[in-house]
């Protein structure tokens, strides 16, 4: 049975790659667009949040209108519905945001009011540099003309450069509010935190914890010591090991990203009815 989250098809349309595998009224290769701003993928046109997409993410539209489109995020293969106002024509993206959150200003002056916000792993096109500032150009969307501004250079890196320690990336999100399906510095969930940390290190990562558990790393033998960067999975939850005693995770118990003693967390999570650790993985 195909996973709805990863299958680019609905009752009306399917991606051409699914011809002969699913029933659909029509098949298409789709139209590639670029996310401008941050939006939530929904599980239906007026449905629930499934996952967040960020500026620079590529989205392949399979169906829709001027209000709502259906398609697939190329970052992790996640399928859903997205408001059309936040999509523009793809650019050549040159840089990636390396901080939890950064701002774009209309001029290279930190005292000017910012006009856009970007988050960890957002991708942008830098067209020029001016001192410690990068001039960024954003594509036209159905709701706005092309826009440009300035982002601090220390908050960016070339798009093909990556960090080496996922835990250090996750630690940037400490105290970030817990938001279901969130992937941004304004709010993030457990699998969003792991995905942000791994993508910043150049490691491909699915969007949800069950998909991550199935796809990432190798199982750690029972009784073997854990090390920094290992992943602990529960049914519907994931955390990252920081050191011998602590883990970091976004969780609804604290409603934020926190360090937590591993032994205490394992006991607490099972006691609240969410079961034992289901796997321990090493990247």
Question: In short, what is this structure?
Answer:
This protein has helices spanning about 165-170, 190-200, 210-215, 260-275, and strands spanning about 15, 25-30, 30-35, 40, 50-55, 60-65, 70-75, 80-85, 85-90, 95, 100-105, 115-120, 125-130, 135-140, 145-150, 155-160, 185, 185-190, 220, 230-235, 235-240, 245-250, 255-260, 280.
What do these coordinates show?
This protein is mainly β. It is built from four helices and 24 strands. Helices cover 13% and strands 37% of the residues. Strands 19-24-20-21-22-23 form a six-stranded antiparallel β-sheet, sandwiched between helices. The mean pLDDT is 96.
Blueprint (SSEs and pairs):
Blueprint: E1 13-15, E2 26-28, E3 31-35, E4 39-42, E5 49-53, E6 58-64, E7 68-73, E8 79-83, E9 87-88, E10 95-97, E11 101-104, E12 116-119, E13 123-130, E14 133-138, E15 147-152, E16 156-158, H1 166-171, E17 183-184, E18 187-188, H2 190-199, H3 209-215, E19 218-219, E20 231-234, E21 237-241, E22 246-251, E23 256-261, H4 262-274, E24 279-282
Parallel strand pairs: 1-2
Antiparallel strand pairs: 3-6, 3-9, 4-5, 6-7, 7-8, 10-13, 10-16, 11-12, 13-14, 14-15, 17-18, 19-24, 20-21, 20-24, 21-22, 22-23
């Amino acid at each position: 049975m195909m996973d709805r989250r990863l299958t680019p098809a609905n009752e009306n349309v399917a991606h051409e790659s699914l011809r002969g595998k699913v029933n659909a009224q029509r098949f298409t290769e789709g139209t590639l667009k670029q996310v401008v701003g941050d939006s939530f993928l929904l599980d239906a046109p007026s449905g629930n949040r499934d996952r967040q997409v960020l500026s620079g993410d590529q989205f392949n539209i399979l169906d829709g209108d001027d209000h709502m489109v259906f398609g697939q995020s190329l970052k992790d293969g996640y399928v859903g519905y997205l408001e059309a106002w936040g999509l523009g024509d793809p650019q050549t993206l040159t840089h990636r945001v390396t901080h939890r959150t950064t701002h774009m200003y209309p001029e290279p002056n930190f005292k000017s009011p910012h006009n856009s916000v970007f988050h960890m792993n957002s991708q942008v096109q830098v067209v020029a540099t001016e001192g410690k500032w990068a001039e960024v150009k954003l594509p036209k969307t159905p709701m706005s003309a092309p826009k440009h501004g300035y982002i601090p250079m220390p908050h960016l890196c070339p798009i093909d450069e990556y960090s080496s320690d996922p835990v250090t990336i996750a630690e940037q999100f400490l105290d970030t509010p817990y938001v279901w399906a969130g992937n941004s510095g304004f709010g993030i969930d457990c699998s969003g935190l792991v995905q942000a940390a791994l993508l910043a290190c150049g490691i491909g990562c699915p969007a949800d914890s069950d998909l991550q558990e199935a796809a990432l790393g190798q199982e750690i033998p029972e009784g073997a010591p854990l090390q920094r960067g290992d992943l602990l999975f529960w049914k519907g939850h994931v955390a990252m090991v920081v050191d011998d005693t602590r883990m970091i995770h976004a969780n609804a118990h604290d409603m934020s990203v926190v360090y937590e003693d591993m032994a205490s967390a394992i006991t607490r999570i099972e006691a609240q009815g969410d079961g034992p650790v289901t796997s321990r993985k090493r990247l």
